[in-house]
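Bench notes, afternoon.
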Amino acid sequence: MAEAPVYYYETEGEWQGGRDLQISGAGLPAIVAGAPPEFKGRTGVWAPEHLLVAALNSCYMLTLLAVAEVSKIAVVNFSSSAQGKLEKIAGGNYQVTEIIVRPRIVIASANDLARMPRVFEKAKENCFVSNSLKSAVKIEPEVFHQQTPVTPCPLD
């Protein structure tokens, strides 16, 4: 049996003064990142905490789209918000202890509504970023058909 491929993703960071950095990767647009205001940074730049939450949110969205495609569920519209909770833990260090992802999806066929809880579960199980975190990851989805809410969709 062939071994699964291994992939590498590289980035560069360059200090820009103060608490700002420029982050780049080969063939990718550079972004300015820095400490958030609560840690002596400034507003208007991406904080590592934002990037962590965005990484999970975008990975979950892309994984869900892949699961829906394999499941032959037509997605009409899809958006998602996510919120990370940073708190001081035992020992005095800060940690992102929880990230809540709130996908809002519109599907084409009402016949697929009953299958959506499993799609949300499979997306969480297969999300690379979610699988790499020790933070609790909660999914609070909403499914719509013809712009009419039919759930929050329980994941039990």
